[in-house]
Amino acid sequence: MALKAFHVSDVPNLDQVPQSASFSLYSTRFSKGLELNRAASFRIPKFLVIGHRGHGMNLLQSSDSRMKAIKENSILSFNSAAKFPIDFIEFDVQVTKDDCPVIFHDDFILSEENGTVFEKRVAELCLAEFLRYGPQREAGKDGKCLLRKTKDGKIVKWNVEIDDSLCTLEEAFHKVEPSLGFNIELKFDDNIVYQQDHLTHVLQVILQVVFEFAKDRPIIFSSFQPDAAQLVRKLQNNYPVFFLTNGGTELCYDIRRNSLEEAIKVCLEGGLQGIVSETKGVFRNPGAVPKIKESKLSLLTYGKLNNVPEAVYMQHLMGIDGVIVDFLQEISQAVADMIKPAKAVNAEEGLSEGNGETEAKSKLQFSQQELSFLLKLIPELIQH
């Protein structure tokens, strides 16, 4: 891949939205739909809970069995997530060599043959090659052994309690519960600076599938690749686009990825609708939250801390719009308990809806241990 940067302003407007497209993202899971129009106004009407890679990511070296329960980024994982009261699932989309959008997180796919480990870039495989890895949908057919490299460089077998086949984006549209929204992460290699024509081609291939099969399903696009995020916003006006950032928790070569302030600039320059930040990035820089809101941007978060109910509730209090989580059962239940609709709270407290003197409360009653955790959380994060 040639290393050549570009300015998204140089790209012509390639708006491919069908004339009949609706500009309201509505789901039966929402009391109100997510609203987007061509002027880029966007509103999230409730605190969103989003399933990370479906039912949760696979962390194969973890001692927590929940991190190895169901194969991530699979149809089974997505439909398992749909059983919980969540709003969206998040998953990663790449495009194969023969122009098919597939769902897979890692840049490389690893396998073993005759004791030798092979590593191949997903974007350099054709669809048929990609689908040969892991369990096969055809009865009696065995797939290639699927391995994974951990963060510390170890190569382990991709063993989960309930396995499933690899899948395409089109397949997800056909087979996943239709009321469940899709947060489609546009996946690119962090170590490559992509040419303009390559990014444009990849995004057009993905958009073609989305436009053809999304129907009324709510969609949010997101990407760590700032040029891709701005470009997909320029290529279509139908769905909101969020910029993904680690919020300064790790240093990147591209300075646009190194702080929430830079993320705000990326969004405002490209007309994006929001930011998805690593949770620690927000807790370390809470002053960025009002700046994001003043810029009329939405804010979602991801990261391990989103599996801690108290950390999720703190974000709700801070005005964050939603969280991407792995432990769906625990967090969706905690959110339901912590963030009660005003009508339900009024009913519990014997208040009438017309009583303007008393504002409904939705705050959780914390134990002393929980309060201690909340008070210590932000300082500990800043130190580490």
Automatic annotation (TrEMBL):
Family designation: Belongs to the glycerophosphoryl diester phosphodiesterase family.
Catalytic reaction(s) noted: a sn-glycero-3-phosphodiester + H2O = an alcohol + sn-glycerol 3-phosphate + H(+)
EC number(s) given by UniProt: 3.1.4.46
SUPFAM superfamilies with a match to the protein in the record: PLC-like phosphodiesterases
Enzyme class at the top of the EC tree: hydrolase
GTP-binding recorded as keyword: no
TM stretches of this protein: none
InterPro entries linked to this entry: GDPD, GP_PDE_dom, PLC-like_Pdiesterase_TIM-brl
Gene: LOC111316524
Pfam families recorded: GDPD
Domain of life according to the entry: Eukaryota
Gene Ontology molecular-function annotations: glycerophosphodiester phosphodiesterase activity
Domain GP-PDE: 47-335
PROSITE patterns listed in its UniProt record: GP_PDE
Protein name: glycerophosphodiester phosphodiesterase
GO biological process, alphabetically ordered: glycerol metabolic process; glycerophospholipid catabolic process
Keywords, sorted A to Z: Glycerol metabolism, Hydrolase
Cross-referenced PANTHER family: GLYCEROPHOSPHOCHOLINE PHOSPHODIESTERASE GPCPD1 (PTHR22958:SF1), GLYCEROPHOSPHORYL DIESTER PHOSPHODIESTERASE (PTHR22958)
